[in-house]
């Protein structure tokens, strides 16, 4: 596949091919651990994916055959967060999690190796996870002085159930791709050589379907769990659809033409 670079970054690769935007953490030396700068770059790429109408599906992965992402880079962990080039401690991976959830396009985690700690949470918040047979999953927070009690816990519990989520966090053990499949943590496991082909197949399958339908389904699935923020997302989509109707246009036109709106001719569905 001839992936073409969308934009050059320092710590990630950001590429495009036939409707797919691919974001790759490019720090294999550290098992693709993220610094605040990696995360800032991923957020920027995700916003571009949201804005670019040529991108229908987003794929998240890590460089190489060892790791998807090993979480926050422990070398730059400070007392109030992870420190990037600007010297400010941050936990901006939480912003990335929210962007993954709210982008109105499917996001696939292409898990090519270790998905550990904050890196595990990143695959959890993606809409779909496709793993290679060598992938390994787990949380380490309580072992290394950290935790993610947000999506990393509550959404994980929605995916694998309360007992399993507590086991994953309390014991900090590692799970094989096959075990992840059995607990519903990933959608599919394939040999490493097939990982990208399979991921592209899933993306192409989704691209055959109505983008608006997928968008509404994603917003609806989020809304059930995300409280007012989830309802806002679903409601925002409803507003967008409403604006596409003549009925909504009549209201705006009447205001600009300084007349009373006439909504009488629009259907009132049962
Ligand atoms: C990922 C894992 C299991 C891989 O093990 P292995 O044996 O394949 O590799 P190794 O030798 O541990 O790692 C290779 C090199 O990558 C560095 C290592 O230090 C090592 O460097 P050298 O010894 O060659 O110099 N490396 C790996 N992960 C790193 C990391 N996260 N930060 C900095 N350097 C890293 C194994 O490496 C592992 O367990 N890694 C640590 C996983 C971890 O605990 N991550 C942080 C969890 S907390 C978190 O991510 C988080 C959160 O809980 C809440 C909010 C935000 C973040």
UniProtKB/TrEMBL annotation:
This is 1,4-dihydroxy-2-naphthoyl-CoA synthase. Signal peptide: none annotated. It catalyses: 2-succinylbenzoyl-CoA + H(+) = 1,4-dihydroxy-2-naphthoyl-CoA + H2O. Pfam families: ECH_1. One of its GO terms (biological process) is menaquinone biosynthetic process. GO terms for cellular component: cytosol. NCBIfam families: menB (TIGR01929), PRK07396.1 (NF005637). It comes from the Bacteria. Its EC number is 4.1.3.36. Converts o-succinylbenzoyl-CoA (OSB-CoA) to 1,4-dihydroxy-2-naphthoyl-CoA (DHNA-CoA). Its cofactor is hydrogencarbonate. InterPro entries: ClpP/crotonase-like_dom_sf, DHNA-CoA_synthase_MenB, Enoyl-CoA_hyd/isom_CS, Enoyl-CoA_hydra/iso, Enoyl-CoA_hydra_C. Pathway: Quinol/quinone metabolism; 1,4-dihydroxy-2-naphthoate biosynthesis; 1,4-dihydroxy-2-naphthoate from chorismate: step 6/7; Quinol/quinone metabolism; menaquinone biosynthesis. The record marks 82, 243 as: Important for catalysis. Belongs to the enoyl-CoA hydratase/isomerase family. MenB subfamily. GO terms for molecular function: 1,4-dihydroxy-2-naphthoyl-CoA synthase activity. Hydrogencarbonate binds at residues 139-141. Gene3D superfamilies: 2-enoyl-CoA Hydratase, Chain A, domain 1 (3.90.226.10), Lyase 2-enoyl-coa Hydratase, Chain A, domain 2 (1.10.12.10). It comes from Maribellus luteus.
């Amino acid at each position: 596949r001839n992936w073409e670079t969308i934009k050059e970054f320092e710590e990630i690769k950001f590429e495009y091919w036939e409707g797919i935007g691919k974001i790759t953490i490019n720090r294999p030396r550290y098992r693709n651990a993220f610094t605040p700068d990696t995360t800032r770059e991923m957020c920027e790429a995700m916003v571009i994916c949201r804005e670019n109408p040529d991108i229908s599906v987003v794929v998240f992965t890590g460089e190489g055959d060892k790791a998807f992402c090993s979480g926050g880079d422990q070398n730059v962990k400070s007392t109030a967060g992870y420190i990037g080039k600007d010297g400010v401690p941050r936990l901006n991976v939480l912003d990335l999690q929210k962007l993954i959830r709210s982008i109105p396009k499917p996001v696939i985690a292409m898990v090519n190796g270790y998905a550990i700690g904050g890196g595990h949470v990143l695959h959890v918040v993606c809409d779909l996870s496709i793993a290679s047979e060598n992938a390994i999953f787990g949380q380490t927070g309580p072992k290394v002085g950290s935790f993610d009690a947000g999506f990393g816990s509550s959404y994980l519990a929605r995916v694998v159930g309360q007992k399993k989520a507590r086991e994953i966090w309390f014991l900090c053990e590692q799970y094989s791709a096959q075990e992840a499949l059995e607990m519903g943590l990933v959608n599919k496991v394939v040999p490493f050589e097939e990982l990208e082909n399979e991921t592209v197949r899933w993306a192409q399958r989704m691209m055959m379907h109505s983008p608006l339908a997928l968008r509404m389904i994603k917003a609806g699935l989020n809304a059930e769990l995300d409280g007012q923020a989830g309802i806002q997302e679903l409601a925002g989509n409803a507003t967008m659809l409403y604006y596409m109707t003549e009925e909504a246009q009549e209201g705006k036109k009447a205001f600009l033409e300084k007349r009373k709106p006439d909504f009488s001719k629009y259907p009132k569905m049962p």
